[in-house]
Amino acid sequence: MGLEMIEAGWLSILPPLIAITLALISKEVYSSLFLGIFSGMCVYCYCSGGNILQAVTYVFDMMAGKIGENGYMIIFLVLLGSLVVIVTRSGGSDAYGQWAGKRIKSKASAKLATAVLGLLIFVDDGFNCLTVGTVMRPITDKCKISREKLAYLLDATAAPVCIIAPISSWAVAVASEVEEAGGLNAFVRTIPYNLYAILTIVMVFFLSITELDFGPMKKAESQREKEQPHRAEEATVKKKGRVFDLALPVVTLIVCAILGMAYVGGFFEGVTFTEAIGENPTAGLTLGTFAALVVALLLYLPRRIMSLREFMTGVIDGIKTMIPALTILILAWALGGVCREMIGTGIFVSNFVNAVNLPFGFLPAIVFAVAAFLSFSMGTAWGTFGILLPIVSMMCIGDEGAAILIPALGATLAGSVYGDHCSPISDTTILASTGAQCEHLRHVETQLPYATLVAVVCFLGYLVAGFTRNPWITVGASILLLLGTFGGIIFWGKRRERQQQPRKQPLPDGVQE
Questions:
Q1: How far is CA 67 from CA 19, 30, 63, 186, 330, in A?
Q2: Span 249-307, pLDDT tens digits
Q3: DSSP 266
Q4: Each residue's pLDDT tens digit, 358-400
Q5: CA–CA distance, 143 with 208 (Å, rounded to integer)
């Protein structure tokens, strides 16, 4: 924009405060972010002698500038949305479900298969929920697994997996928000500190293997055992699809995205692989997604799985599905730009933190709690970390702050995912209910104790992270604490069962059993 940054003092914290407060009150993130940006521009014009018309102009100048800076990411997201829709409509998901249904016979194997497929489809959470739900619903129905449990498995292997996968729409979004801290490299360093994602995946596999259940989920599973099998559902996708119609585009996306990042970064010209991957990751992801679309085109059209018109309709419909996410991102980029580049929010926050002598060791746990509350209230992880990541980055200025930056960023992402995971107004929660064909509020009610148990363990884990600043000690201690909690649940469950068993009445004297 060509404007010099000013130091607005306490007024510099108004934009993020306005955005957060309005989001909590209205439960609507788009207008909240926009008004946060506008208030920031008003602060800038007030301090620099401008007027209200200039403030409005600066809002759109900032948004246009951020769109230009992040053009590759926007292209990647719209291509990914197109790929998701096209692969879903090809029938590959349905074919995989039929193939797997012949091999999966037990409840444990059905839940494990759902979890594994959820881990494999990590490029996008919405794609994950709908694809895995469509594939596994007939199988879990046959094995008498409740729709509530299926919805939990979908939800717990959607956002938690996407937020720790370097090749996903979430990774690119986060990398764009922490560009000053290292971009994609900074995101990769946060993965061991993303305790909620790691512990949720551990919990999913533990519950699948042991068949442990508690709270409302236990009641739902017990009721499902007594019910008649669900009626077979009519396929809603083309029956010509095969398993490789799902697998080949996804594998192409992963392989070509890695090769694309290496190519763009100069790996084939002598640059080290690590440096090449981090040079311009969004360009590489864009090339990989485009390659997957080309493979899908060559795979589907000659076999008449879909016509060219149907393929292009899928492309346009996929672009439409990404508009909400892109809107949040553009607004979040603009809000971060106002705070960082124009009104000096980071300088003010950093000076304030140093003045009050806040122990940096508590910062990850505090950030996790704030992000969790905000994300649950707004129903969006993207909106939450779009607001909080720039603020956390600004707080961690200086030598001591820099040492806690990565754990704090990891805690921000973890709290955002927890709130998104269990919020009734989250799009991921709604998509998980849709993918499992489960009543939405029943899904929220049954998964809330599971998600909250992990969140409590995470909070304690971030206290460890804040003072040890060692990812492996943090992860190890958190996993041990989670497993210990499971042991306590099993122990008290068995003790309660023994207490509820009817006691034998003493026999009269002289009477033998």
A1: 20, 16, 6, 22, 7
A2: 878 887 888 888 888 888 888 887 767 766 777 788 789 889 999 999 999 999 889 89
A3: T
A4: 677 888 898 898 888 878 866 678 777 777 887 787 777 666 6
A5: 13
Rounded CA separation 379/29 (Å): 9
**Start-to-end Cα distance in the chain:** 92
Contact 104/117 with Cβ under 8 angstroms? Answer: no
What tokens does 439 get? 């009543």
Task: Retrieve residue 497's tokens.
Answer: 């069962």
* C-alpha count within 13 angstroms, C-beta hemisphere, residue 202: 21
* Confidence (pTM): 0.70
391: nearest Cα among 4, 36, 27, 1: 36
Separation between Cα atoms, residue 434 and residue 429, nearest integer Å: 9
Buried b (16+ CB within 10 A) or exposed e, 315-345: beebbebbeebbbbbbbbbbbbbbbbbbbbb
**Tens digits of residue pLDDT in 163-201:** 888 776 677 778 777 766 667 778 888 889 999 999 999
Structure tokens of 482? 């989670």
Task: Name the token pair of 6.
Answer: 């000013």
In whole angstroms, what is the distance from residue 349 CA to residue 274 CA?
33
Q: Is 302 exposed, middle or buried (0-12, 13-18, 19+ CB in 10 A)?
A: exposed
User: How far is it, in rounded angstroms, from Cα 130 to Cα 142?
Assistant: 19
Neighbours of 86 (CB within 10 A): 27
* Nearest CA-CA partner of 314 in 300, 302, 329, 303: 300
Q: Spell out a b/e string for 262-277, using b for 16 or more CB atoms within 10 Å of the CB, else e.
A: bbbbebeeeeeeeebb
Angstrom distance (rounded) from CA 427 to CA 328 = 13
Please state, for a pLDDT cut of 70, what percent of the chain lies above it.
83
Predicted pLDDT of residue 209: 87
Residue 12 is classified by DSSP as: G
**Interior/surface letters 99-111, b for 16+ CB within 10 angstroms, e for the rest:** ebbeebeebbebb
How far is the C-alpha of 495 from the C-alpha of 489, rounded, in Å? 10
